[in-house]
């Protein structure tokens, strides 16, 4: 994850990684806002994707996303701190299924996502 240039560019900080789990945070700056003045969906997705990547690669073999679905349920604005967690729902030799949640400073659900990875030997 140290090589994730986009995460670094966006200011995403990986806080915790253990097998099948990851947690990260990002402070919403004006650069992460969309034209409507709320946090850009791409920034929220990127935060969820970082924890997805960290959790799915925590077992060792390279894991690459096959599919990710996200649902945005609440908006946030500049100054908010978003925290995302990824938790493993299912693990096989070749695939892994993960659930990601993004919450704000008040522990309010902002987005929920699900991702499927393929593990490369």
UniProtKB/TrEMBL annotation:
<dbReference type="GO" id="GO:0016289">
    <property type="term" value="F:acyl-CoA hydrolase activity"/>
</dbReference>
<feature type="domain" description="Thioesterase">
    <location>
        <begin position="37"/>
        <end position="110"/>
    </location>
</feature>
<dbReference type="InterPro" id="IPR052723">
    <property type="entry name" value="Acyl-CoA_thioesterase_PaaI"/>
</dbReference>
<keyword id="KW-0378">Hydrolase</keyword>
<protein>
    <submittedName>
        <fullName>Acyl-CoA thioesterase</fullName>
    </submittedName>
</protein>
<dbReference type="InterPro" id="IPR003736">
    <property type="entry name" value="PAAI_dom"/>
</dbReference>
<dbReference type="InterPro" id="IPR029069">
    <property type="entry name" value="HotDog_dom_sf"/>
</dbReference>
<dbReference type="InterPro" id="IPR006683">
    <property type="entry name" value="Thioestr_dom"/>
</dbReference>
<dbReference type="Pfam" id="PF03061">
    <property type="entry name" value="4HBT"/>
</dbReference>
């Amino acid at each position: 994850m140290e090589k994730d240039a986009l995460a670094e560019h966006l200011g995403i900080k990986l806080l915790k990684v253990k097998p099948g789990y990851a947690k990260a945070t990002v402070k919403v700056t004006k650069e992460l806002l969309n034209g409507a003045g709320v946090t850009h969906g791409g920034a929220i997705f990127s935060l969820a994707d970082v924890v997805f990547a960290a959790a799915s690669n925590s077992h060792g073999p390279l894991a690459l996303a096959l599919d990710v679905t996200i649902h945005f349920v609440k908006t946030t604005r500049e100054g908010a701190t978003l925290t995302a967690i990824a938790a493993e729902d299912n693990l096989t030799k070749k695939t892994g299924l993960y659930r990601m949640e993004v919450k704000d400073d008040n522990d309010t659900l902002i987005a929920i996502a699900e991702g499927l990875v393929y593990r490369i030997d």
